[in-house]
Specification:
By secondary structure, the chain is mainly α. It has five helices and three strands; from the N terminus they run H-H-E-H-H-E-E-H.
Length: 96
Amino acid sequence: MEYIWLAMGIAIAGYLIGDGLKNFKNPNSKNILDSLDESDDHELIKENEVHHFIGISKEDAKNMVSEHPNIPHIIINNKIYYPKAKLREWLMKIGN
């Protein structure tokens, strides 16, 4: 069983090294981690999970939402969701 994990680790390391070498002469190209961040643009966070994203307690998240009605959110089927990218931008604005 441990050989399977070792083989998977070597395969993943080989892929990441190969991806890095592929773009070695093009430093402006996106790496695999940057491409994963792009998928955040359309990801929604449920209302009861927003505290995890922000890194605060549930109670603090509820207080923040009630104090800031302009927080970016959408309502789908009477449930509140927060677009991850817009929430990140909003947090950066209020942090400055």
